[in-house]
């Protein structure tokens, strides 16, 4: 599966997981849109950028590094949802306007973002 297909899989997995939790998801028709979907919680609308990481653990590490090519402005993206294949779930965290990567684990400081579909 190429990177475009993996990204599409992650977007639809995210949509399904949101729907299971009562969050309505809308996908833009234009494929060059900055965000991948809009999450409607019933209280607020959030612009979500979905990423996919198929990386596994590096030697002597217990974390996964998820990288992307550019940062996203606070006006363009509210949250990132990074699907990590090793964990079979999403790390959902707010955009800080400068982030291009995150190191995730079920045991580190970023574990609080694992499958956190509360958007709070």
Biggest beta sheet attributes? 5 strands, mixed
Q: Kindly provide the radius of gyration, computed on alpha-carbon positions and rounded to a whole number of angstroms.
A: 14 Å
Low-confidence parts: none
Helix content: 10-25%
Mean pLDDT: 89
Sheet-strand content, in percent, reads: 25-35%
Structural class: alpha+beta
Instruction: Report the span from N to C terminus.
Output: 33 Å
In spatial order, strands of the major sheet run 1-2-3-5-6
How many distinct domains? Answer: 1
CATH topology: Trna Endonuclease, Chain: A, domain 1
Instruction: Characterize the overall form.
Output: globular
Regarding quaternary structure, how should these chains be classified? single chain
What letter string, H or E per element, gives the SSE order? HEEEEEEE
CATH architecture term: 3-Layer(aba) Sandwich
**What is the β-strand count?**
7
Q: Tell me, what is the CATH class?
A: Alpha Beta
The count of helical stretches stands at 1
Question: What this model shows, in words?
Answer:
The protein has 120 residues and is α+β, with helices and mostly antiparallel strands. The chain has a single domain (3-113), classed as Trna Endonuclease, Chain: A, domain 1, CATH 3.40.1350. Helix content is 15%, strand content 30%. It is built from one helix and seven strands; from the N terminus they run H-E-E-E-E-E-E-E. It has one helix at residues 3-20, and strands spanning 24-26, 37-40, 45-53, 64-67, 79-84, 89-94, 101-104. The strands form two sheets. It has a five-stranded mixed beta sheet. The longest helix has 18 residues, at 3-20. The termini are far apart. 24% of the residues are buried. The mean pLDDT is 89.
């Amino acid at each position: 599966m190429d990177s475009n297909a993996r990204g599409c899989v992650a977007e639809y997995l995210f949509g399904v997981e949101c729907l299971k939790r009562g969050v309505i998801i809308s996908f833009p028709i234009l494929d060059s849109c900055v965000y991948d979907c809009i999450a409607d919680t019933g209280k607020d609308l959030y612009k979500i950028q979905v990423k996919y990481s198929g990386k596994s653990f590096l030697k002597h590490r217990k974390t996964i590094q998820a990288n992307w090519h550019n940062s996203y402005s606070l006006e363009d993206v509210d949250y990132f949802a990074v699907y990590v294949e090793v964990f079979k779930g999403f790390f959902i965290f707010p955009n800080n306007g400068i982030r291009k990567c995150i190191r995730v684990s079920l045991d580190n400081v970023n574990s609080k973002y694992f499958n956190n579909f509360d958007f709070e």
